[in-house]
Amino acid sequence: MGYFARRITVALGLAAGVLFFTADASASGCNLYQATDSCTFNAGVFDVVGPHPTGTGVIQSFLRVQQNGAEEGFNTGARPMLCDGRTCDDKTDPNFTRNLLSSSVPIVNIGGTDYRAFYLDINEPANLPGPNYITLDQVEIYVSNTANLTTHTSTGGGSLTGATKVYDMESGSTDNWVNLDYVLVGGGSGWGDMVLYVPNSLAFSTNQYVYLYSEFGCGGTFTASLSCGSGSTKKYASQAGFEEWWVPGSTTTTQSPAVPEPASLMLCGTGLLLVAKRYRLRRR
């Protein structure tokens, strides 16, 4: 296991003890604007994380999407890939968008339960006017024993032809989303931003391939507007940067430390922040 993968393993173990006490289950929007923020939708945990460095040649991207306003796509080795009859916003270079083996998705044990970990790196221009936010508006995860699937459809709750859906960020007809600050961790470029933990019990081990569909922006409104909605329903568009989902270089199963009692959470959280700060200083 490489040095970077080992650092991720350690971070997963340290974070796991705090994760389920800080998760904020919600049926609408969730803001990940602080390093300690996390939220839960349908047993999937969205958590701020900041592995460093990231970027081409360092992380193993399996899905990269890029478009101004709103962007959507899913990972596959097929070309072209279709989203509701249009070409998805995937970057078609196989170094960035490709098939993903179930065996390549790392496993982390949290409180005795195994979860698969999917990492997100946001790459938006941080020097443009306005808030440095982007909305992760949809995540769907599918499994299949068929490679190179081609067609995603949003109607009827979302489907990928030839695959079985095992996770959906949405709750029935309720719209769930996560607002992210792409300069929160390390000032943006070169740092990861978020990790999604999904229960491993969802048929990952019995299927060869994993497909992740995601959408960023204003709920499928493909415009160049920087935001949509207002107040608690406000979402933020892509500013023509790219977002990529990735996994570490090898499958890693970790055993987390004992889950702390609620009274110890503040001390544990403080320790995590100190570890992260010292690690960043050593890496500079």
Order of helices and strands: HEEEEEEEEEEEEEEEEEEEEEEH
User: Assembly type of the shown chains?
Assistant: single chain
Number of domains: 1
The proportion of residues in beta strands is 35-45%
Q: What is the total tally of β strands?
A: 22
Query: What is the number of helical segments per DSSP (H or I, 4+ residues)?
Result: 2
Instruction: Calculate the terminal CA-CA distance, rounded to whole Å.
Output: 23 Å
Secondary-structure map with pairings?
Layout lengths: L2 H20 L1 E2 L3 E4 L5 E4 L2 E5 L11 E10 L1 E4 L7 E2 L2 E2 L12 E2 L5 E4 L2 E11 L9 E12 L6 E3 L5 E2 L3 E5 L8 E5 L12 E6 L9 E8 L10 E2 L6 E2 L1 E10 L5 E3 L9 H19 L1
Parallel strand pairs: 1-3, 2-16, 7-13, 10-22
Antiparallel strand pairs: 3-4, 4-17, 5-21, 6-18, 7-8, 9-18, 10-11, 11-17, 11-21, 12-15, 12-16, 12-18, 13-14, 19-20
Helix pairs in contact: 1-2
Give a verbal description of the structure.
The longest helix is centred in the N-terminal third of the chain and has 20 residues. The chain starts with a helix and ends with a helix. It is built from 2 helices and 22 strands. The N terminus and C terminus are likely disordered. The strands form 4 sheets. Strands 1, 3, 4, 5, 10, 11, 17, 21 and 22 form a 9-stranded mixed beta sheet that branches. Strands 2, 6, 9, 12, 15, 16 and 18 form a 7-stranded mixed beta sheet that branches. The protein is mainly β and about 280 residues long. Strand 13 and strand 14 form a beta hairpin. Helix 1 runs antiparallel to helix 2. Helices cover about 15% and strands about 40% of the residues. It has one domain.
